[in-house]
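--- STAGE predict ---
source: upstream dedup step, 1 unique chain passed
mode: sequence only
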Amino acid sequence: MTTTAKLIAVTIDCAEPRKLADFYAKVTGYEVQYAEDEYAGISDGTVNIFFQRVPDRKPAGWPGPGKQFHLDFRVPDVAKAVQEYLDLGATKPEFQPGDGWVVLADPEGHLFCVCPERS
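--- STAGE serialize ---
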């Protein structure tokens, strides 16, 4: 039998951990738990997202094979959330692969999807 592991966090490489932690804290409503130049983290007490400084990191092109991950967020009103996230500094790539959800890029180019609530 394989040992079952419990996911405690996702860590995202970025150039400015404090800035990206602040962006995602506003998107998720999570609290900034730790914020230094090299490392920052946000949490709701259960889910943690950490941000680690990697100064030479380059965002992957979209669409393209360089994307290694993306985050999905469920919201009650996709259009409203997209506008709010754009106002916070996100960008909307021209290529949108589906209908009903929207792909955005955070201020450092990491992709995330804004998805509707389940019906």
